[in-house]
Amino acid sequence: MFIQRNDPPPLCKRAAGACSTRNSRMFFHKILASLVAFSGTTSAQSITATNTNREIPTLSPQINALPSLTPTVLDPTAPDSQACPGYKAANVADSGSGFTADLTIAGSNCQAFGNDISDLVLEVQYQTKERLNVRIYPKHLAPENRTRYVIPESVVEQPEWDGKTTAGSSDLKLDWSNDPTFQFRISRVSTGEELFSTYGHVVVYEDQYLELVTNMIDDYNIYGLAENIHDFRLGNNYTQTYYAVDAGNSIDGNVYGTIPFYQETRYNNGAGTTSHGLYARNAHGQEWLLRNSTLTYRTLGGSFDLYFLSGQDAAGKSSALTTIAQFQKGCIGLPAMQMYWTFGFHQCRWGYENISVLQDVVEGHRAANIPLESIWNDLDIYYLYRDFTHDQNTYPVPAFAEFIESLHANGQHYVPIMDSNIYVNNPGNASDVYATFERGADLETYIRDPTTGDFYYGDNWPGFSVWADFLLQSSYNWWRDEILLYHKTLPFDGIWVDLNEASSFCAGSCGNGKLDQNPAHPPFLLPGDPLTFDFNYPEGFNVTNVTEAASASSASSSQAAALSTAPILPIPTTTTQGRTEPTPGIRNLDFPPYVIDNVQAGHALGKGSIAPNATHNDAYNTTEYEMHNLFGYQIANATYHALVELFPGRRPFTVTRSTFAGSGKVTSHWGGDNTSTFGSMFLSIAQALTFMMSGIPMFGADTCGFSRNTDYELCSRWMELSAFFPFYRNHNVKATISQEAYRWSSVAEASRRAISVRYSMLTYMYTLFYYAHTKGETVMRALAWEFPEDSSLRETYSQFLLGPSILVTPVLEPNVDYVNGVFPGVGEGVRWFDWYDLSEVKAAAQENVTLSAPLEHINVHVKGGTILALQEPRLTTAETRNTPYTLLVALDGQAKASGSLYLDDGESLEPNATRLVKFDYTDSCLSFSSEGDYYASQPLGNVTVTGLGEPVNPHNSTWTPVTCKPKSIHLKYGGGDSDPATVAVGYNGGVLHVSNLAQFSQGGAFQKDLSLCFEW
Fold this sequence. Notes:
19% of the residues lie in helices and 24% in strands. The chain is α+β, with helices and mostly antiparallel strands. It is an enzyme of class 3 (hydrolase).
């Protein structure tokens, strides 16, 4: 097993007429081509560093050369693994919570993509009423081989039996047969609905290849399998590859994260929607093949450790939201609660050259009256890209620390980047001293090269680099100490961890014998190097900016011509190699017989990352082959616990790129290196929804796009959209234009308006996070989750909900001033109100409504039946939080509404005081009561009620507004009557405004219960 640690261990539309499903999918396919067209790579040349007087050697591209492999899913000559013999079950024994059995291979060895394992153990455990676990692993596991197959609980949380559930009390049951070989199926006890079935298929278990095939219903609906950049509904002609990779905007390919969980929705021909889920606890490289009638699960090793979720609530009703909550609560752990300030707007760029530029950005936002909560730095702050350093020419200490303290004085914050690689000192240069590396080297805490026994020397931004081995306690201690030491010079407020796939720019331990060349330039041009300016602009730019588009095209051609005459390194040559053949007794780690469809050139596992045969320092020399997809989780966990020590009692704020199932307990996530295209903006919604499912709700995309140039139209639309994502950050790369919102008047106005809405409802978003943190509820929601009986919504992801109550309909294409959207539930009496003027939407069931959407406007609607506690938006979250409360009451079809508000100090890891306020509007009376002892001093200033009137036909949301304001108001605050004589009342068109209430709650709006009744 892995070495144990003393510190906390890692845990693990279709509408009537013109339908929104059609619009979403047509638009997706229209933009997909524009995204794929910009996925090329750039060659390398020798570059002179801008902040040093000596030339930095450039790595030879030959070190990147690897055999070119054909992914097995694309190889028609690959063996048919379903021709393998399968297994027979025997020696079945009751375990109290389920049963165990032996599985023995039912024929001669197959060796499709590895060495067959003849003897297996089957464990079936009814862990909780809603969760059934099926494990299959080798019967004879020597300690030194165990970690090849079974992920230790000390690394990834392993769900356990609740101590009481049996087959007789479970929602689920497992049936199995040995005819002709072992096969099993999972079904619901209540209805017999079959959820998963391997009947008709064999189980394949080899040392480098596992396979299960399940039968699927026609036209099935599967969601999840994060991380992917794809339609939210995954479809039935899609392969999800899992191998953490440094490849931005990887459409339909493997990306940064590995969260092997899906949720399936079945509409059952209108007979009642059902939902269930499956989590496969395996960290190896893997693929999920979604095909017309089957789903095939294949991994490069490990074990079958499957958790089937019924999705049923206490009443026996199943739903997507319940399934997702069961996954988070029972399988991977609930997400961390975030600090209040982190929900503000963040600004970052790779290209803030010095403190003066950073100060200008802060002042630019203030001058434009655009809220700015936090300023971030990319790699610019570091000396030659080395973590925990300072470029004393551009970011000198103590001037830099003084700048950050000035942010703190204004209620603002600062977050720096920290890459996962550590530069290695040049042994031939006595002046090349990097203490961070040396301290780690003294502890021998880095991953190793098995061919030399020395450290594994890969390559990243600073040159030849090493990576910490987070299977060691010493690595946790070293990383913590470096963070604590760095904070003494730079008073940051959170940490952004990047390149933690872990990414290496060469193949193998390429620094062996070459460390005297350090610092070495990566084997490709970097943004900001000569002749690297990006002249690409978004779709539609040639329409809105004809002259500038022509100039950009001309400049791009000139740069390309100049680049072609520059001394560019030759393109690396590769040899073509087919699949490797399984060798008895040997595992080929670098080139396993089954080739997953890795997006890196050549598809090899060692391209762009630490080689699979690199070894760790635990007792069994566990390899990267087993650990690769866990590196991001481990360093995020180490960073989280370092911040716990740095800021005792305060919630850590970390953002990381590579994730695994359970990462949400210790980190948040951004969508990685996207592009400045409408297509990338569109797909960010689906990406966000998959992370809501995955227990990482603090998610956001690089607003306005990271690579390529944005323009005023795209940036306006994206600033509007991201205002309703939990994590809201604008970030882009150097060698492109600056894209801070204040640089265009239209973007500035769009941003002010959208942020005003966001900051008004910060309390709502914070409350949603409280429920995510305590119950596993989702923050952003697919329309289909909230309206599960409407099958027309299964592919509607150009719109989304924030919680159950806020509907967001963004513009996602260029050169339009309108947007189409549906208003779900209107046919069943659901009411929707425009956020801005509180007017009620008039729409028919499943109607695709055309909404006005000028450039500075994003459509936002409030669901009837909602009560929201709002505050006045200011330039920071702290200022906003100190303003009086307003209650917005939007009535449903029965003239009722409800809501809640969670309050605490906004930062404590374990708050000493909390308050939960419950709101209700029934029979023309608004009331609230609260529990807890958190004191919020802000008074209640105003109450607005919309939707007042008499229903003409509730089934199509037609109401006649009341024609006059109330005859009288009865106000009780804290149990006693209050004189409403000084209360101001206004009424117009079904909207009632009650103001001047602050006089009754100067001691705090929610310190006492309130009742406010209206007589008409």
